Fold this sequence. Notes:
This protein has 329 residues and is of the alpha/beta class. 57% of the residues lie in helices and 13% in strands. The chain is globular, with a radius of gyration of 22 Å.
Amino acid sequence: xxxxxxxxxxxxxxxxxxxxxxxxxxxGHAHALNLHESGVNVIVGLREDSSSWNDAEEAGLKxxxxxxxxxxxxxxxxxxxxxFQKAVYEESIEPNLEExxxxxxAHGFNIHFDQIVPPENIDVFMxxxxxxxHLVRRVFxxxxxxxxxxxxxxxxxxxxxxxxxxxxxxxxxxxAGVLETxxxxxxxxxxxxxxxVLCGGASELVATGFEVLVEAGYQPEIAYFECLHELKLIVxxxxxxxxxxxYYSVSDTAEYGGFSRGTRVIDKDTKKRMKNILExxxxxxxxxxxxxENKEGLPNLKKMRKDLSxxxxxxxxxxxxxxxxxxxx
Length: 329
Ligand code: NDP
Ligand code: MG
Ligand code: MG
């Protein structure tokens, strides 16, 4: 896979352009400030009563109401939560797009699932840092960058790739390395990863392990430490050295027990169900379910949040974490 670095990208591509960053949250503040410090002409677009308006101005950025920012921008990067992008795009951005502009995303959901259908005479691409916004910002100020993905959906100008790489350079991505993907690949792998492994899979693994110990009569506090608290240590080891690096660092007992029992917890049937989950992502069933859930006011999400808040692991965890002064509240 080709990786693009600083030498492959030219910030001069953006010299006479204005970049409008819509939203000033996790990703928005990092993109806007990094681009600004890279010498790019950046403005921020927000709704009038936005709670982020002052923050952006105090950081030295020019802030406009979303439609005005979209009109001023040659490049318009949408960095508000995905579920609100369609409405904001249709109301405030689309009417202000002109031929030759570029529309940018940091996640492919709305384009890939046809929630946003851009006009044909503009470039449409994605630049997605592979990390949360605060990391994208911090690492940049330390002189390095977070790796980015980019993807071209529509290349009306014939130069979308150069523009995408210049943008990635401006946020610091080419300092670390930038990889090319597609909207389809980024969206489908992102959804699958968070559902089957990162958010869904990991949480259920933790909660079920906790339940097994508590139901067997062990103290919930001890179960919490074993099944949830210590997970961070294991994940940190994997992050630094892969699965083998983690197994190298734990005891031989943990290594043998993990190898010989892990495959009994996650077996061929689990893999089959993961494949079903991937199919629902690929055929659009999940996207439609989620879009409807939003339209109906999130009834199922609210119910599941409530159920979790009543789970014993949450109650015990709250008490135990209050003993941990080093955790930011
Ligand atoms: P945030 O939730 O941090 O965005 C908050 C910003 O959006 C605020 O400026 C807020 O302003 C504004 N906003 C919220 N709701 C609305 C609304 N209804 N109308 C207008 N503005 C609104 O978003 P993220 O940074 O997490 O995500 C932005 C994009 O980046 C998404 O596409 C996401 O998938 C992608 N992404 C996110 C990553 C992350 O780590 N968070 C990683 C990679 C990609 P206000 O004060 O007005 O509410
Ligand atoms: Mg995601
Ligand atoms: Mg142990």
